[in-house]
Design brief:
6 helices; globular; four-stranded antiparallel β-sheet; 19% helix
Length: 296
């Protein structure tokens, strides 16, 4: 693979990590082994890249992963022969990946639910949509391929109901509003998402539920489902989600990651056509933090 440096002044290993899918460690390993070339020449990791430098590197072979059923506690809100709704705890990764080969929601699903759709492959059985590791809350699970296709299409058509609760920094000027700004991969840091003209359309609606001076409790509704959408949109308007180590400030509320919870989930049942709607309680740390803010 090849990239052209548009902004110089940083170390080669950092530039490679920021601008590609490589981790800093893997970037260093490739540089040391001579697999990274700058303008056709081998350079050390401490080399300062210059504007216009052409850097070539190797894309690592994808790790072959296997998944196994694991007896992990899982709150199943609803289940029938076609669909299930689960309440994912904060800190749980949705599906296996490099670095997360066990302890995921998929590992738990394989143990607790007999049949799962196979449309998304062996590593994502039943997974119709995702939420971040440190976001808690409701997810729909498909138990057969017909159900999966119907639920996925409803998401694509923006007909599903997905409402979140979040504690965010600051006191919003309006009680409600709509954030409409395209989201794509950040050009400055390839591991992050950002509002960018090259991104895909993204729409988030919000309503202020409570105000605490330095913080606000919001209900947010997704019309689209871009990666990190709520976190990116809230940071974009100057009110990042509290506890968000990626898109928020260092000085924030102490918890187990961002204070973001998928509270309400609604969809049309793929077999019966019935409108289904579910809600879930916010996690204990979320409740405790709200109580502390109310007492200030």
């Amino acid at each position: 693979m090849e990239i052209k440096i548009e902004r110089g002044g940083v170390r080669l290993d950092k530039a490679l990590s920021d601008l590609t899918e490589l981790s800093r460690t893997l970037a260093n390993e490739q540089i040391k082994s001579g697999q990274v070339l700058v303008n056709g020449q081998v350079k050390k990791a401490k080399y300062t890249v210059q504007e216009g430098d052409v850097v070539t590197y190797q894309v690592p072979e994808p790790e072959v992963l296997e998944y196994v059923a694991e007896d992990i506690p899982l709150e199943i809100i609803y289940q029938d022969e076609d669909v299930a709704v689960v309440n994912k705890p904060q800190g749980m990764v949705v599906h296996p990946s490099a670095g997360h080969t066990s302890g995921t929601l998929v590992n738990a699903l394989m143990y607790h639910i007999k049949d799962l759709s196979g449309i998304n492959g062996v590593l994502r059985p039943g997974i119709v949509h995702r939420i971040d590791k440190d976001t808690s809350g409701l997810l729909m699970i498909a138990k057969n391929d017909d159900a999966h296709m119907a639920l996925a299409q409803e998401l694509k058509d923006k007909k599903s109901l997905r409402k979140y609760w979040a504690i965010v920094h600051g006191n919003l000027p309006n009680d409600r509003g709509v954030i409409e700004a395209p989201i794509g991969r950040s050009e400055k840091d390839r591991k992050k998402q950002a509002v960018t003209a090259k991104g895909k359309p993204a729409v988030t609606r919000f309503q202020v539920l409570e105000r605490f001076g330095d913080y606000s409790l919001l209900e947010l509704q997704l019309e689209t489902g871009r990666t990190h959408q709520i976190r990116v949109h809230m940071a974009y308007i100057g009110h990042p989600v509290a506890g968000d180590e990626v898109y928020g400030p260092r000085k924030t509320l102490k918890g187990h990651g961002q204070f973001l919870h998928a509270k309400t989930l609604g969809f049309t049942h793929p077999r019966t056509g019935e409108t289904m709607e579910f809600t879930s309680d916010i996690p204990a740390i979320f409740k405790e933090t709200l109580e502390k803010l109310r007492k200030k």
